[in-house]
Each structure stands twice: as C-alpha cells, then as structure tokens.
User: Fold this.
Amino acid sequence: MSRDSLLPRILLINSNPVESDWIITALSQKLPGCEIEEILNVEDLAQAIANGNFDLVITDENLPWTTGIDVLKTIKEHRQACPVIMFADCDHVETIVAAMKAGLDDYVIKSPHQIDKLLQAIEQARQKISLDDSPATTTAWQKSQQPYQTLVENSPDIIVRFDTQLRHLYVSPSATKITGMPTRAFLGKTCGELGISAAIVQAWEKAAQTLLTTGEKQTIEFEFETLNGIRNFEAAIAPELSHDNMIESILCISRDVTDRKVAAQALKRQVQQAQALNRVVQIIRSSLDLQTIFSTATAEVTQLLAVNRTSIIQYLPEQQIWKVLAVHRLDESIPDTIGIEVPDQGNIYTAQLKQQQVVRINGVDEINDPIHKQLAQKFTQVWLLTPISVNGKVWGSLSLTKPESESPWKDEEVELSRKVADQLAIAVQQAQLYQQVQQELRERQQAEAALQKLNQELEQRVAERTQQLQQAEARFEQIFHASPYPIVITSLLDQRFIEVNEAFCQLFGYSREELITQPPEKFTFFADPVYGGMIRQQILAKGSVRDFECTICTKTGEIRTFLASAECIYVDGIPCFLTTGNDITERKQAEAARQQQARKERLLRLITQEIRQFLDLDAILTTTVTEVRHTLSVNRAAVYRFHPDWSGSFIVESVSKGWKKLVGADFQEVWEDSYLQQTQGGRYKNHETFAVSDIYTVGHQDCHIALLEQFQARAYAIAPIICGDCLWGLLAIYQNTAPRNWEAWEIELLEQIGNQLAIAIQQSELYGQLQTELQERKEIEEKIRTSLKEKEVLLREVYHRVKNNMQMVSSLLSLQTNSIKDPAVLKLLTESQRRVKTMALIHERLYRSKNLSRINFAFYVPELVGNLVQSYTTVDSEIQVTLEVANLELDLDTAVPCGLIINELVSNALKYAFPQQKGEITLQFWLEDETDYYCLVVKDDGIGIPADFDFQCTTSLGMQLVYGLTEQIGGEIQLNRQRGSEFKIRFQRRS
Assistant:
C-alpha cells in the first residue's frame, strides 16, 4: 500500500457556510477521495471525538460557541498525535502565538487565495505523524518508508534532525538549495559552529532546551539570509522518542513564510484602508456637518498612511484662491496650514487639479513655479494633491504631505486618496443639496398628505362602488356604522333618511330611530337653510360635491363648522344622496387662534422695531395707533396723556374715515373726567385694564356717557401707560358702529402695547435729557477752549516779555563792561551776561514753539553751544565740538538748570582745557529706558582738572553754580579725570 493512497479523514470545524463550501470544494478537487466531516456545534465535536474516525482537524479561530484554542486543547487531550491546523486572521498575531504554544501544528490565513498553503500544511501534517492509530494503517506506514524518504528529499521545507547535543544528524536537500552549503557541511555541527547569527542560535537553543526539558513541541520564527536574500522562516520543533519514551533526537521543520507574511501585511493594510474608508463613509452617512466630516477624514488618512499632514482645500473661483479649510497633523511640531490662501492664477498645479488630474510632487527640486517655491521654503515636504469634484467641477483638493525622505508616492496611497476624495465629494454634494432636499422634502410631505387625503377619498369611493356591485350589505353596514366620520344616506325624491351611522347621531344629538322614522322637515341641520339647497343643486348639476364648508345646528342648538362631501348613489334602485364629512370646529378655532396670535406678534414686533430704530416719540405713537386700529379693526385708536391736574388731552389718534377727529394740527382739546381727576387716575394707576362692550348697558353715569358720546364711542377698551411708578397716560380703542364683545387676546395685546409705549416714552425722555446735557457740555467745552486760547496768548506774551527783559539785562551788562577796567570784574560781568543769554534762549524757544510748557533739547543745545564756541574761540582755533543729544522734550523747570549747567561746563572746557586751542569736546544727553533717568555728559580730551581740585568745595562761582543746579533738579554729579575731564550728571525724569 503506497503512502499517497492513505488519504486523511478530516474534521472541518467552521460556523460560516460560505467558507466551509469553498474549503470542501477545494480539498475535494486537490485530494479526491478524502473524507471531510463538518462540525457545526459542540455536540457534533463531542460525538466525533468519541467515534475517533478522523486523522486531521481543521478549525476556525473564532466560533460562535467556542474558540479555536479551546478546540485545539480538547483535541490534544483526547488524541495528542492528531495534527490540528487553524484558520486565522492576519492581524491576530497574539492568538496565533498562544495557539502554537498550546500545540498547534500549523495555521493558514483565512482566504480563498491561501488554499495552496492549506494543502502544504496538510501534507506537512501527514509527514510528521502517522495517519491513523489502527494496526492496518501502522503497517501501511512502515511499508512506505521509501516514498516517505522521497517526499522528505523533495519537500520545499527544510527538514533537519538533531541529536540531544543539538548537532546536525540529517539535513534535507532544500537546506543546500536555500543556503548554498553542501549537506556534509552541516553534519556533526551545531548551528553556532556553522556561523549562523547569534540571535537565531540563541532562539533555537532556547526552544530546544525547553523541548528537552518539557518534551513539548516548540515553534519559533526567525529571519535568515538565503541565496535569494533575507527570508522569514517558521520552524516547528518536535521530539523523536525511543521505545521507552525517551527523547533520542529532535526533528525541526522550517518553512519559508515570507510570502505569507507579505500577503498578510498587504491584506492587513487593505483591511485598515477599507476600515478607514468605511469610517469616513459612515460619518458622511450619519452627519451633514462638513467640519465633522473633514476632521474625521483628515485624521483617518493621516493615521492610516502615516503622512505628516492631511489638508482639505477649497477652490474659491470668485476670489481666484484655494483656501485650506481643515488640517490634521501627525504631531504638533508640524506647521499648521489652516487658513492659508494659495493663488490660483498662474498656478500650474491647480490647473492640473481643475483638469481632474492627481498631482504628485516627489521632491522640492520638481517645483518650478514661484508660487509653490515660496510654499516649499516654509513647508519642505513632498505633496500629493487629489481633486475633489462635485457635479463634474473641481470643488477643491485633498492634500497629503510627508518627508522628502519617504518619497515617491505609492500607487496605493494615490488610490486611497482618490477614494477618500470621492467620498468627500459626496459629502460636499450632500451639504450643498441639503437645503434643496429639505425644501423638496417639505413639498413632498405636503404632496403626500394631499395624495393621502385623495387616496382616502378614492378608497372610500372604490369601497362604496364595490359594495354596490357585490351587494355586500353586511360589510357595507359594518364600514358605514364603524366610520368615525358622520355619514347619512337620504332619498333624492322625498329627502327622507335611508340610513345614518353612529358618528352622525353623536354629532347632531339625535337617535337613529328618530331620524329614520320621523319626516325630514322636523329636523333643522343647517344653521342657514340655504346650505342644503346649495349642496342639492351642486349634486344635481355635477353628480357630487367635495369639501363644502358650512355651519350646522345640533339638537341642543350648538352651532358647529362642518366640511361636507356628497354624491349621488343608488340604493336598491332608488337615487339617493350619500353625504359624509368632518367636524372641523376645533380646527377652525385653532386656525383663528393662530391668526390672532400672528396678528398680535406682528403688531408687537412692529412696535418694538419702531422703538429700537427711532427716538421720535410722535412717530412711534402715530405708528402704534395706526397699526392697532388696523389690526383690531376698531374705528378709533388714540393715546391720552394726563395733565398735572389729572385732566388730559388726546395727543395722537388714528380714526376711520367719517368719524370725528379728537386730535388736530391746530387744536388739542382738554378733556376733564371728574372720576379720573378725583381719583388721580382711578383704576388705571393700579395697572388695571378696563373694557366695556356697550356704554349704555354697563352702568355708566350720565355725565360719563355724555363724554363718551362726544367721542362717538359705543364700546371701548383702555390700557394704562405707566412710566416707572407714574401713570403717564392711556391707550384707548373705540368701536363706534355698534356694541362689541372684546376678546381676551385683544385686551392682553392692548396691555402689552401699553407696556411697550411706556418703554418708548422713557427712552424719549431720556434722549431729551441727554440732548440737553450734550448741548450744555458743548457750551462748557467752548468756554474752556476760549479760556485756554486766551491763556496760551498770555503765556506766549509772558515768555516774550521774559526774553526781552533778559536781553535787556544782557545789554545793560554789555554796556557796563565798556566802562569796567578791572579784568576780574569784567570777567564776572561777561560770564553773567552769558548766563542771562542762556536763560533768554530757552524763553525764546518756548515763545516760538507750539508747546508752551516744554522745549525740545535737541534743537536748543546746538544753538547754545554754538554761541559759546563763537565767544571763546578764534578763527585759528582747532577745537572740535561733538553733540549727541537725543530728541527729548524737557519742561521749563528742568531745561533752565540744564542749560546753565551746559553753559558752565562747556565754557570751562573752552577756557581752560586747551592751552594750544586744539582738542575735542563731547556733549551727550539721553534717557535711560530701563531706569527712566536722564544722563548729561560733558567731556574733553584736554589737560584735565588738577588732582587736588574738589569741585564740591571750591570758590569758583561756575562750579558752585553747576553743583547747586544739579541738586536743584535732584541729580548727582560724577567727575572722571582719565584722558581729560568728564562730568556725568544723572537725574530722574519728572512724571
């Protein structure tokens, strides 16, 4: 008996009938004659284990009644040597590892494309153990050693036998084909001695030691460099036992699973892409919010494709730009592009998008146009731009970016981008059509309602005609009497009642016996008899009448509104009227209430708008009374204002044509109501509203009736207008033609309008007060402006006079020097003259300046120093003066001391520092921002000040003046004698 003739008996454990069908079909074709038994539940599995008629088990990973691992454990408990193969999903790695640890022989990815892998797994199982425990099978197996050897030699798997010292005893030829090493190179050596990588050796030795210790089969996976490159292998390691059940060798079968892993990874990516696309589709189906859809889509694409940034960009043709609407970034370090606008004109990539083309930019060096070159400087990445088209036109694009190191863009990335863009186009189209769909939906609902009503009528007519043809009296009576709508059949000849239903009897209050047995003239059903004649005429003329609205009268005299339909029928050959309809009294009342509410809201809205938009009280009151008169259909609406003595006048009214006017352009009559005057407003000051339906029946005194007759009033309603706590006036409406029963909503509306008018009056009074205050303020401001101008003129005059007086003093000193012969006195007078000029120069600057309280020091100092240089130097002098003065303004109290200090220090430098009349003087003035202090520095590179000179204790008038003026402005002075002399003065800026 040959080994191939021993076909396995297979248990197939799977709950999915579709999967079971293609597995059975494929195995039957590849292994003809093999026995396959389907296991669908736990009872079938228990029975199969008890019978033991199987050699191999194929089970699914997930079953509705158990798990694949539990099935594996159960099989191994009863038949340890029975091979078990499991179908698994590609991404359930943890489950597969756990199953291998539990003794799983092999696994196959669940797919019709993996049937060859399943056949290989079955063949491997047949190679590892005997097919059956029966003696006959054992004998057949022993006789088939040579075919088994042939199978091993030709197997694509690497089959190796090791001794317990982990040395190679046997190596199948496939090892030579894969590694290029001859068989003899393996024998007697361990994996480590063969130079295999340390990681593989460590994993192999660990698994082998575990097997030798526990006796349990082990499984490992590893990467190995073959002649065809690095490949992935899965090794099953099993013990080979001696007759006394001792491990005498180790069998290792290694299978190349590279293609399976690649397929699994590809399948996993496909599943992830399908799941991500499905999530986008689901959010589009469940939401019309574009922002939510965009956020979900960009996040899914970013995570799935591991790109840096996913953006949705809308094309705005009116503005000729592409604007970024939504962005999802892989992390916060990636620049955010939300809101960026890209020009459309001259943009080669957007031109391609508008041609429905996908744009791939695989490197910055591919960018040639200036627009995207500028963008690339900020966002140095590669781009994938996919058009989003709605109704054949480009709406925008889906933009993906990733580092240039990960380029180029793959076809599967482009395909997924296209799919997502197509779904986004659907979402945009849905959002654009939402309003249109809503409108169509409303119209359709209205049409469906009308169609439903028409359908009901048609069904009723068909039912009636069917009843006539089939003479189904019983069924007709059942429908007739069970109808919730009143139905009556009357004879066309004598108008007697042939039949009525219960709804008709309940509506009119008569019993069926009364209506059938008594003559029709005893009953009055229409509030106006003309209705009956109109219905009869239309039926005789047209054969029927539809939705005829009329008023009916019940037995108790109650008047109700009825919508009647009638047509001519024949009952037992007698021409009759079939009349039915619906009591629409409540509906009419509801419609009237809605109309009243709408009129009320419209009027209140109009008045509120008038109050908000205008502050003209007359205009507001005029609009109010006009709208009140038209809305409530009264003859007169007016506003009555109280005088201090509680008499009053109508200040505005709206009156129908033909009635007396109470308010005129040239007159305003004062009306005296003794009740209102005596009670100071009566009930109205308590926020009460008063309505009279007829002035002659309400019990008014004669004088009151006489007053109302002057108004031509027959009925009236009045609401108070209360501003704050004070009764300001009344809002009145008058019905002159006849008595009128005022409805509750009319009185409520009048009261609400009175409250609104109170707000308008308060606003108008407040506006008047504000106008008065504003005018008073303008007058005060004008007075202040005039006063300031007068003071400005006076101040300029003061500065001018001070300057003139100082110039006069300077001139007097100059004249005095002409008569002085003593050099010391002459020197004192000359220095005093220069000090006076220094102060006069400041007043001259202030006099000529627009700002009378401050002087610009940058303009003042050059003129001052120039005068000093001109006074103390000659034409041959080589003394240079450098000025570094900041553009600062000082007040008069600071500018005068600073000018005198500069005068003294610069004069001293010019006089004493340069005996050879050659050198440099530097003057600096600035404001320290961090300390808010002014700094004044005067330095020279002359001979310097003697070391024993103390400027704080000197008889020099100039230095005493400098020291005293420094203290006056609250400053401090420092002297630096290195390389000439340097005086530094710091003082705080005044607030």
